[in-house]
Specification:
Layout (H helix, E strand, L loop, with lengths): L1 H9 L12 E5 L3 H7 L4 H22 L3 E8 L7 H24 L3 E5 L7 H13 L7 E8 L1 H17 L10 H5 L12 E4 L18 E4 L9 H13 L8
Parallel strand pairs: 1-2, 1-5, 2-4, 3-4, 5-6
Bound molecules: 3-methylbut-3-enyl trihydrogen diphosphate (IPE) (2 copies) and magnesium ion.
Amino acid sequence: MAKKEVVEEERSAPPEIANVPQHVAIIMDGNGRWAAERGKPRTEGHRAGAESVRACAEACGDLGIRYLTLYAFSSENWKRPKTEITALMTLLERFLKSQTKEMLKNNIRLQAIGRITDLPVKSQKSLHDSIEATADNDGLNLILALNYGGREEIIDGVRSVLRHIQDGLLDEAMLDPQIFSKHLYTRYYPDPDLLIRTSGEMRISNFLLWQISYSEIVISEKFWPDFKREDFFQAVQEYSRRQRRFGGL
Ligand code: IPE
Ligand code: IPE
Ligand code: MG
């Protein structure tokens, strides 16, 4: 109890930001390198990264950001050693179990995108439990991208469009980007305004391919476990200084 109060007192006031994004998406990268730098196993990096998730979700809530999408496990991450995959899934389950109370306290609504039914059954269960428990919250929407691939999402979207056409629910001639968006996992969310990638990598790695057409991109040199509240604020401030044109003038 006393410890918790100290932590809350230390929380810095959010900065005044002229132009707060509605939706921030993050490619949380560099856990393995963070661990390697410390001579620790990669899983320690993933464990430490969970604290950055908490810190960034809190910072988002404090700025009044409505959506935070986090790339937690890609369609391609199945290529990693089985032990690392198991550790990641176990960490996910632990994170959900330990953070659901915190999410309820902070009015966070948890959601997930990706091919969720291909995740281990235990992970799916923890996910569904947290999603259900936080369903009535109306603050920040925290969206975890799990077993997520942008190409896979577009293919699933095409399948959904074809089904709708076959069932006579959609006229092929009407199909446009706006309608197609409604067949993606992200149909309930606006496109990300700001995309952050940590660890200095300059690539998208199959994340939200359709949705980031006009997102502002901020790359942080920090590894994800070192990316905290102030780093998040800095990225949002950088976003706020950008001029978005969407192809216009
Ligand atoms: C990001 O960190 C977490 C996941 C992809 C699950 P990495 O595990 O990719 O760490 P690096 O990039 O190898 O340092
Ligand atoms: C992207 O990071 C996926 C996640 C953050 C979940 P990766 O570390 O898997 O990406 P690459 O392999 O460096 O492109
Ligand atoms: Mg990586």
